[in-house]
């Protein structure tokens, strides 16, 4: 003939997704039927119950087979017809039943284990005690060894040479809950000797697994579900703590930084930032990665001051609220998630007397009549870590108040119920005579009430603000009626009360 005969390749079936084709230097395992042109079979790998394993392009195969395997894909089936010049020549070959001077036909599939084809560069290094295959690719899909038999996960670090190189490469980039089949060539698995009872020559390895949990470095933990601790919805109360002070595990400390009020976060924490290799001895097993589903209700810093936002300016501000002023205002109190815990009608208090929590006093300071403002009060100047019962305010709660100021009035000095502004009597004796209308040398409660209201109306005196006038006068009367005869003598009477010591007697009776 004018040219030498060529190898004829007919593709019987080829997978749609061919990620890699056989090339020179690859180690290939395949099944085949060897036939003559008349259909007589002279050899096949299935009767030997094993694949034919060889390098391609390295002289281990007859030239026609080398050429016929080039470009094949995993699981591909080919009909390869080889002329004698590229097979066994004019004399055939002993023992294989080839045809002298004739063409040989090979019908081959290219499987590895369970119908797959594997290639690689095996090394004679192996490893002891782990269970693999000498010189071949390893595939573990429950057929050789699996963790389910041990009823526990396989826990290890990735990147620290604690697993075979192929498994390290195969696990990189995996997500929690992801399922992967990882197929490894022998040089990245257990080498040519293999190990133990799985020592089939040149068997490649495949691992199928689910990533239960991982952490930076990548650790296989033992918890696949989220562990929720301290959630308000499950325990009836919030979990209150400081961040960055060692009160929390390191992963939660780090995961909470930068969060906003009302934000929900899912925080995944590796064991070395959680409860480590020992767990917590209760619900969290050793080496467990944790998932926290957290809703940030509120937070504060112990150095925070009230945060004031004016939502409505006063039309005219003649006087700003100052310490010791008596104020009348409306308010709404709520938590930072919007839940209202209290709302008032018109309320009066004197600032600087301990009648209000410190945060409310600071939030009211400087207001003008007609002004509306919102004030955020942290717990250390609110109701603290203990909270209060009525209204119900939980411990360590950050509070939001809306205030509307109606009136500002200068208060009396602390301890005073009454004060002259001008035109005061010269002394208590003169005042006693003016009050004793019936001149019986005794002052009754009606006489004292009539006189005091008249002086206030004339602008000569002021009563303590924040209390009904009758109550103030009654308290003054009872605080001086030492013998409880319902009258004041000249020895008992005074209109100057400089402290609250004598008032305690009146408080008991009111």
TrEMBL record:
Annotated catalysed reactions: [protein]-peptidylproline (omega=180) = [protein]-peptidylproline (omega=0)
Q: What is its EC number?
A: 5.2.1.8
Establish whether keyword Isomerase is in the entry. Answer: yes
Residue intervals of the EF-hand domain: 423-458, 468-503
Which Pfam family, just one, is annotated for this protein?
FKBP_C
Q: Name one GO molecular function term.
A: calcium ion binding
Q: Which UniProt keywords apply?
A: Calcium, Isomerase, Repeat, Rotamase
Q: Which GO terms describe its cellular component?
A: endoplasmic reticulum
Give every PPIase FKBP-type domain span.
25-100, 147-194, 200-300, 324-409
Which InterPro entries does the annotation name? Answer: EF-hand-dom_pair, EF_Hand_1_Ca_BS, EF_hand_dom, FKBP-like_isomerase, PPIase_dom_sf, PPIase_FKBP_dom
Name listed for the protein in its UniProt record: peptidylprolyl isomerase
Organism expressing this protein natively: Ciona savignyi
């Amino acid at each position: 003939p004018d040219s030498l005969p060529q190898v004829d390749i007919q593709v019987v079936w080829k997978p749609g997704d061919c990620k890699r084709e056989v090339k020179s230097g690859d180690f290939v395992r395949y099944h085949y039927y060897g036939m003559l042109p008349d259909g007589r079979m002279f050899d096949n790998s299935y009767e030997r119950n094993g694949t034919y394993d060889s390098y391609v392009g390295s002289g281990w195969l007859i030239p026609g087979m080398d050429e016929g395997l080039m470009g094949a894909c995993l699981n591909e089936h080919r009909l390869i017809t080889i002329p004698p010049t590229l097979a066994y020549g004019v004399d055939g070959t002993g023992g294989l039943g080839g045809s002298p001077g004739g063409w040989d036909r090979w019908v081959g599939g290219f499987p590895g284990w369970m119908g797959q084809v594997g290639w690689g560069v095996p090394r004679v290094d192996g490893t002891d005690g782990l269970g693999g295959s000498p010189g071949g690719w390893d595939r573990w899909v429950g057929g050789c060894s699996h963790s389910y038999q041990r009823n526990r996960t396989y826990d290890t670090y990735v990147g620290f040479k604690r697993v075979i190189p192929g498994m390290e490469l195969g696990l990189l980039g995996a997500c929690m809950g992801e399922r992967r089949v990882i197929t490894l060539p022998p040089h990245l698995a257990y080498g040519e000797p293999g190990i133990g009872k799985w020592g089939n020559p040149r068997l490649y390895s495949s691992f199928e697994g689910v990533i239960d949990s991982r952490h930076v470095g990548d650790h296989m933990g033992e918890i696949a579900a989220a562990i929720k601790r301290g959630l308000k919805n499950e325990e009836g109360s919030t979990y209150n703590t400081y961040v960055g002070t060692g009160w929390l595990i390191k992963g939660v400390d780090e995961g909470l930084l930068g969060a906003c009020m009302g934000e929900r976060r899912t925080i995944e924490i590796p064991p070395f930032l959680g409860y480590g290799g020992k767990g917590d001895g209760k619900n969290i097993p050793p080496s467990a990665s944790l998932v926290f589903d957290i809703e940030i209700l509120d937070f504060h810093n112990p150095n925070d001051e009230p945060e004031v936002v004016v939502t409505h300016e006063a039309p005219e501000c003649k006087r700003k609220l100052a310490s010791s002023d008596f104020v009348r205002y409306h308010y709404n109190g709520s938590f930072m998630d919007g839940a209202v815990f209290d709302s008032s009608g018109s309320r009066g208090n004197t600032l600087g007397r301990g009648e209000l929590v410190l945060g409310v006093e600071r939030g009211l300071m400087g207001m003008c009549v007609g002004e509306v403002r919102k004030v955020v009060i942290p717990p250390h100047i609110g109701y603290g870590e203990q909270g209060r019962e009525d209204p119900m305010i939980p411990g360590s709660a950050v509070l939001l108040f809306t205030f509307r100021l109606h009136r500002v009035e200068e208060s009396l000095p602390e301890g005073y119920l009454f004060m002259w502004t001008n035109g005061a009597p010269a002394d208590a004796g003169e005042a006693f005579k003016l009050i004793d209308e019936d001149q019986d040398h005794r002052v009754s409660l009606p006489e004292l009430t009539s006189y005091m209201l008249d002086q206030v109306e004339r602008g000569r005196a002021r009563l303590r603000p924040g209390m009904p006038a009758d109550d103030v006068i009654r308290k003054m009367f009872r605080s001086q009626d030492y013998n409880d005869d319902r009258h004041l003598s000249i020895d008992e009477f005074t209109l100057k009360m400089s402290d609250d010591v004598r008032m305690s007697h009146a408080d008991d009776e009111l």
